[in-house]
Sequence to fold (103 residues):
Amino acid sequence: MNLDEIKQYYLNLEPVKPLEIQSTSIKATITKINDQMISNYVTLTISLLYIRVQQNATTINTIKRDNIENIVKDGALLKIKLDNGSLIQFLSPNCDQLYELLK
Fold:
């Protein structure tokens, strides 16, 4: 392929569809929990399965303890409600460990 053919190929690709807007729920899978806690922050490295947010799609990788309104553990699912009304649900084999860190 020459340069013009390559350009044309990319111009003909279907545009990426925007994220479906339904709720403020973010679902993620935790791939690593840092064992180091700095001040009142717990840093999580997460890989997102999908995001559904009302306005701007953002990746949450640091949760401030003061912002957690409540936290519920249901098997391997962890539901964290933040004081701004956001609900974050983590499905993780490390759920027990994370629950102990955050509660």
